[in-house]
Amino acid sequence: MSKSYIEGVSYPTTPDWDTERPFLTGQIYLDIKVTGQRTGSKSSSIDTFKNGDVNRAIGIFTPSVQELLVIDDLLFAMTGIEGMYISMKRGRAKDSGIVFQVDASMDLALQELAKRILPLCENYMVIHSFVESRSHFKHGLVNHAFAATLRTILQDYHAMVAQLEHQFRLGRLSLQGLWFFCQPMMGAIQALTTVVQKASAQNLSGSAILNLLQNQAAAMAGDNAARSLLEKLSQYASAAYLGILERWVYEGVIDDPYGEFFIAEDKTLQKESLTEDCNAKYWQQRYSLKPGIPSFLLNSAETILTTGKYLNVLRECGHSVQVPFSENAKLTNSGSDRRYLECINIAYNFASAELLNLITHKYDLMARLRSMKHYFLLDQGDFLVHFMDTARDELAKKPAAISVEKLQSLLDLALRTSIAATDPFHEDLTCCVERTSLLVQMDTMKKMGNGMSDLNTEAESLEGDKSNSDISNQSDSISITGLETFSLDYKVQWPLSLILSKKVLTKYQLIFRLLFHCKHVQRELCGTWQAHQGTRGVKSLGTTISGSYVLCQNMLHFMQSLVHYLTFEVLEPNWHVMCDKLQNTESIDEVMQQHDFFLSKCQKECLLLWPEILQKVEKLKSICLQYAAAIHWLIPSVSVLDSDASKINSSESVVRKEILNKTTNRIRSRHRPLANPVWRSSDEETFKTTLEKFEEEFTEQMKGLIIALSCRSQSEPYLAHLAQGLQGLGNNL
């Protein structure tokens, strides 16, 4: 095997006898000896005339005899054989071909007439040489088909020469008659020679040959015979190429031994990468378009590529399918007949419908997407409440100290004991613990340039490097736990991994992390609100408690507004829009496009693609958590509570005691390092100072958030909804 011009393509070696026995190919006629002497006794070269061998010069004969001798030599020259009075030699230029010369002593009228026919002989030599060289394996199927067609044309040409010779032997052919019979083919042969010379000079192969034939045929608008011949050549030369195309669009197989097809396959990209790498390019680059697409297929190239890709997915799924094929569906390229385009469209529609039907019905795509929505978008959050209650202690640990196996068992328990147990795919849900906060993860993804943070230019220019440094500083200053790093994962099998790839799952995880932490902050604030309700009427807590009630209510309002915005104003409407569009999709590419658009829109409207705004939201949540943790100072020890509770009206004592005891136990369990505090009169001033600090910080951050939302809402109207829901929080404290 020898190496081809195309990297990675091998071809059989041409046997040595093909070059060692030049008589088999006619190469002997091209090897002109320097001495000018040709083997045999037929004739002598032009050098003989120069040396003055007048006894053999044609000029010694009468014009009538000269005409017979010239016709005989011309018939030989028309088949590439040197004559006695018409010799051939190579041109002076390095790459020039064979040129024929006549005896200078020939009658001038005969010379003039003979020279008109000599270009036909020279063009024959060029075409013949091209046919012999391009028949070698290394030049590819298109060149083989092209050379075979030229060889057929030359056979017809040889038959014509034989007929002329027969007429000459019968004494019925004059030099003028020879010129008359040669004239009709002069234009066609010249057109073929032009194509051949361009193909040889540029060493063209594959689609480049087809494009050359198409262009030359179009340029021959004034010569119907030449144009018709080139169109016929293009049809036959493209037969091998269309054979490769047939297997691709009808079977999804690239049968391209010489690398001529315009679709390339990268076998290093495996489908397993879709579930392992966020930057996996399997669907985009496993099969891709190469330069040099035939001009007659240029407008259908993407359709052809997609058709084969769909058939490949079906085959990878073990789904044996082949596009219905008949003799009428055979791809041909003949002149103005463009039936092959119709065949390509039929194959595309069939492959697209088969794959879409397979994924939507056999693999139940919509049920999978609904399952993802239940868990990652908290559509059915009862399992989450149960999980957060049982996994509270484990999630309170540092990420490195968390047992993922324990979290997984608690998650499975929560799934089995909630409405999620009715989901047939709930066993595919798993959990994981990230090592960084949400802000740091988003910033890292943006720096890596993996397409996860496609911020618009305006957002990037407004935030700049300051946001990145603030994010890093904030992440370093905050001690994160499992509550900030917990996330879900999902097991996806082929071919659903085309739609639910690792990149898509990462987008789901980012949205889930935001929602999960919001739910956690909201639960903590609800516990704080319950603690406030349990202290109503306890006079020993002082008058500052009323200000804490207001601050807690404002924080709750902020979190409830945020969660309501994320779920009911962003996720739900966009989900329904996506579902409606998926009902009308006609291909898997449209499904992937609509699904990716849904996730990208949700990411953007959920503030994940606005680092400056997201940073302010995270800061507000951090303040809320710190405030909830500090409220335990408001709850006195059990002894104090008992003594104060005895003073409560007897009609309310039972209820008050139950609330206070539950609140005390809950807060002690959540803040064990600060358990059993005793409220003293001196603590009121400390609490007042702390409360004022929380109020000031919360108000400042809230005003900054509302201003940021209002500024961006002019170009991003959806931000105005959240800004309106938060209006007043920055002024009422």
From TrEMBL:
Localization: Cytoplasm, Cytoskeleton, Microtubule organizing center
Cellular component per GO, a single term: spindle pole
Disordered as annotated region, ranges: 453-472
InterPro entries reported in the protein's UniProt record: GCP, GCP_C, GCP_C_sf, GCP_N
Gene Ontology MF, one: microtubule minus-end binding
Major localisation: cytoplasm
Residues in Gamma tubulin complex component C-terminal domain copies: 365-723
Keywords, alphabetical: Cytoplasm, Cytoskeleton, Microtubule
Any Pfam family the entry gives: GCP_C_terminal
Role: Component of the gamma-tubulin ring complex (gTuRC) which mediates microtubule nucleation.
Annotated family: Belongs to the TUBGCP family.
Protein name: Gamma-tubulin complex component
Species whose genome carries this gene: Cupressus gigantea
